[in-house]
Design goal:
The chain has 656 residues and is of the alpha/beta class. It is globular and about 80 Å long. It binds adenosine-5'-monophosphate-propyl ester. Adenosine-5'-monophosphate-propyl ester (PRX) is lined by residues 272, 318-319, 394-397, 419-424, 445, 506-508, 520, 523, 529, 534.
Length: 656
């Protein structure tokens, strides 16, 4: 990791109190909320839930049968109504003032643009929900979404929510095989995709990948294809199965009644990497999730009516779900979406977009910030970024140097920086500054959001007040994952077994300083974070072993200046296979083809053997040390210590 050691972090003395001006106007101004929320978290969350629109009230705020929580369980609501209808229709069914407010402002990578008001979004979502209804989908059915970053990606999710359909978004950068596996695990009945999307001036042919995926799926009945460019549609359609989005929309009814959902009905599943080869479908439900993302958007981003908010995440990730779609739209915000890459056609694309659309709130990942730093401030200086008033960071630890650069160069030393720690599983932001209240320290995500019981625990489950340990959440929270789709045993095992069902185990190592601020140190399990994207070592290993030349593979992360971590694969080949640079390249491509470009190892190290414990477990710690070029730790439990020495030498020779 490029993240500095904890000693370096804890000697960080710079701190940034909120400005008087920001403090005076902030949505969250009363510091006593931390204490009141801690005293009665249910009451705190109930207050937030009441700001949403419910069809039926709940009676029980929390029903906690560890490790299963139900929040607001008798309540009924619809997530789409909360994100769209509520801003278009007032209580009496008349027009709401926000109906003419911009909901989505979009720019495609080639420069095409569109703006949808809340009224427009309402019309599109209603029509598309009708399309989904007409193909026979019913409440609870799963729908896979494999889309470029266009308004239609948002419309697709909201239309699912309107009907109580469960969306399962698959990031457009994932391979056909990854898409196939996710479709099969969720048993999705329909797929919503596009013919293509743009990335770095190239067409990413999503439908082609989808067609390949669909050769191995039995559950998909219909595919709806959005035409990215009406002048040049680029795909083949299978008759009886594939439908064009634009054709179906023309035939669809203008209004589709929202389905009133139970608070605990599934809103979506989203697959994320774990420590085994098989990604898990994280399950989020309706009422609690919406409450969590609504509250955190309002307080962490200090969201107001006049803001133009840009979260750069793709909707294929949880950040896109919570902070492109459900959080900001439930707040009635104006959301900017950009389709493509930050360096296309030039490295100032993001800054030009901020200038052009007068973006006020900007939320991105440290990996992007480090890339911008490397590209240099000249790209930034030529643009007017004075519209910005708040900056956010998410996805991985942010090193103080990047934090300071972000605050000074992008935020003009004027904008608070909120470093937000959370996970696919937590649904919403868990540890973060509140910009009008918290004095920030570069590199620290600071404090738990009010109502969130975050602690550092030691191996035995005791609280570490100051010092290092495992990140844990000790009380249920509304937006927590409810289970893993079709695999509750894995849910219990992964998150709740470490401390016998008492506390949620996040899988992160963290440190708490004297003031109680959290400093995140990265994962403590076999999950890596490459450019802010989560990827499991076992997933990449399975992909490599799938190649006919490979006998065995072990994958670890090594520090990378920009990506935070990069993948290094130690590979043993089968009898009779000759190793070569060409084979290494083939294997890299193979991993990318099997999973997606994010799974492509930076280095492949061929080795005759892998260091194993006497019980036959691969010693990843050792490989990690070799990959990081560190001195070796204790090797006495190794089957053959000589293996390590030869590996170490080999690696030293290949390092750039
Ligand atoms: O290791 C933590 C890291 O990202 C992991 C969660 O990844 P994912 O589920 O893909 O969600 C990413 C976006 C919420 C965590 O276990 N992580 C996320 N945010 C931070 C972070 N590490 C340090 N600081 C953060 N702000």
């Amino acid at each position: 990791m490029t993240h500095p050691s904890i000693d370096v972090l804890l000697s960080e003395t710079r701190n940034f109190p909120p400005s008087e001006d920001f403090k005076a106007k902030a949505n969250s101004r009363d510091a006593s909320v931390y204490e009141t929320a801690a005293r009665d978290p249910e009451k705190f969350w109930e207050k937030w839930a009441k700001e949403l629109k419910w069809d039926n009230p709940w009676k029980t705020t929390l029903d906690w049968k560890p490790p299963h929580a139900q929040w607001f369980k008798e309540g009924k609501l619809n997530a789409c109504v909360n994100c769209v209808d509520r801003h278009v229709l007032d209580e009496k069914g008349g027009e709401h003032a926000r109906s003419k407010k911009k909901a989505l402002i979009w720019e495609g990578e080639p420069g095409d643009t569109r703006t949808l008001t809340y009224g427009d979004l309402y019309r599109e979502v209603n029509r598309f929900a009708n399309v989904l209804k007409k193909i026979g989908l019913q409440k609870g059915d799963r729908v896979a979404v494999y889309m470029p970053m266009t308004p239609e990606a948002v419309i697709a999710c909201l239309a699912c929510a309107r009907l109580g359909l469960v969306h399962s978004v698959v990031f457009g950068g994932f391979s056909a095989e990854s898409l196939r596996d996710r479709i099969n695990d969720a048993e999705a009945r329909a797929l919503i995709t596009a013919d293509f999307g743009w990335r770095r001036g190239k067409r990413i042919e999503l439908k082609k990948a989808a067609d390949e995926a669909l050769q191995g799926t039995a559950s998909i009945e219909k595919v709806i294809v959005y035409r990215r460019d009406e002048k040049e549609p680029v795909c083949t359609m299978k008759s009886g199965r594939d439908l064009w989005w634009h054709e179906e929309m023309q035939k669809a009814a203008e209004f589709t009644a929202p389905v009133s959902c139970h608070a605990e009905d599934m809103l979506f599943t989203l697959y994320t990497s774990g420590t085994t080869g098989k990604p898990k479908g994280i399950v989020h439900t309706t009422g609690g999730y919406l409450t969590g993302v609504y509250a955190t958007t309002k307080w962490v981003f200090d969201m107001r009516d006049e803001d133009v908010y840009w979260c750069t995440a793709d909707i294929g990730w949880i950040t896109g779900h919570s902070y492109v779609i459900y959080g900001p739209l439930s707040n009635g915000a104006t959301v900017f979406i950009y389709e493509g890459s930050p360096d296309w056609p030039e490295k100032d694309r993001f800054w030009r977009l901020i200038e052009k659309y007068k973006v006020t709130i900007f939320y991105t990942a440290p990996t992007a910030i480090r890339a911008f730093m490397k590209w240099g401030t000249d790209w930034v200086k030529r643009c007017d970024l004075s519209s910005l008033r708040l900056l956010g960071s998410v996805g991985e630890p942010i090193n103080p140097e990047a934090w300071i650069w972000y605050q000074e160069q992008i935020g003009g030393s004027r904008c608070p920086v909120v470093d937000t720690w959370w996970q696919t599983e937590t649904g919403a932001i868990m540890v973060t500054p509140l910009p009008g209240l918290t004095t920030t320290k570069p590199g620290s995500a600071t404090r738990a959001f009010p109502g969130i019981a975050a602690e550092i625990l030691n191996e035995e489950g005791q609280i570490v007040k100051a010092g290092g340990g495992f990140m844990a959440i000790t009380k249920p929270w509304p937006s927590m994952l409810r289970t893993i789709f079709n695999d509750d045993a894995r849910y219990q095992q992964t998150y709740w077994s470490k401390w016998q069902g008492r506390f949620y185990f996040a899988g992160d190592g963290a440190h708490r300083d004297e003031e109680g601020y959290f400093w995140f140190m990265g994962r403590v399990d076999d999950v890596m974070n490459v450019a802010g994207h989560r990827i499991g070592t076992m997933e990449v290993e399975s992909a490599l072993v799938d190649h006919p030349s490979v006998a065995e593979a072990a994958v670890v992360g090594k520090p990378h200046d920009i990506k935070g971590q990069a993948l290094v694969a130690f590979v043993t080949v089968k009898e009779g296979v000759a190793t070569s640079a060409a084979l290494a390249e083939v294997l890299k491509q193979h991993a990318a083809k099997k999973i997606g470009a994010i799974a492509k190892p930076d280095d492949i190290i061929f080795t005759a053997d892998l260091p194993k414990t006497r019980s036959g477990k691969i010693m990843r710690r050792l490989l990690r040390d070799i990959a990081e070029g560190k001195a070796l730790g204790d090797t006495t439990t190794l089957a053959d210590a000589a293996v390590v020495e030869s590996l170490k030498q080999k690696y030293a020779g290949t390092e750039e």
